[in-house]
Amino acid sequence: MTLIDSLPPRPLEPQELTSLNRAEAFELVVAVESDGPARGVLFATETWVKGVAYDDDSGWTLVETVELDDETARIDGLQTCEAAIHAFQGEENEE
């Protein structure tokens, strides 16, 4: 099962983000939005960061993946994925 397949077919509630943060599969799960249901979410493990975004028409989409290594720190991966989510959401809002 992929990350996208494991998400519900709607934006995530704050309690769900808390549950995902407690899961052993991820080291960090954080919403891009500061309040309300999360339509943009960053998932991080020791080796990668993934940015996913929710759209009412197509559901969840993986918009960016950054592999972490000696040259790419987690914060850089988080920032790259967050920017990709904002770009994706901006494109969706223009339609």
Rg: 13 Å
Order of strands, widest sheet? 1-2-3-4
Mean pLDDT: 93
Total number of strands: 4
Strand content: 25-35%
Query: Could you state the order of secondary-structure elements as H and E?
Result: HEEEEH
Counted by DSSP, the helix tally is 2
Based on helices, strands and strand pairing, what is the structural class? alpha+beta
First-to-last CA distance = 31 Å
Low-confidence stretches: none
> How many domain regions?
1
Helix content: 25-40%
Query: How is the biggest beta sheet arranged?
Result: 4 strands, antiparallel
User: What form results from the Cα inertia axes?
Assistant: globular
Can you put this structure into words, describing what you see?
By secondary structure, this protein is α+β, with helices and mostly antiparallel strands. The protein has one domain (4-92). The protein is 32% helix and 27% strand. The protein has 2 helices and 4 strands; from the N terminus they run αββββα. The protein has helices spanning 14-22, 74-94, and strands at 28-31, 40-44, 48-55, 59-67. A 4-stranded antiparallel sheet has the order 1-2-3-4. A hairpin with a 3-residue loop joins β3 (48-55) and β4. The chain is globular, with a radius of gyration of 13 Å. It starts with 13 loop residues before the first helix and ends with a helix. This is DUF7964 domain-containing protein. Residues 3-88 form the DUF7964 domain. It comes from Haloferax marinisediminis. InterPro entries: DUF7964.
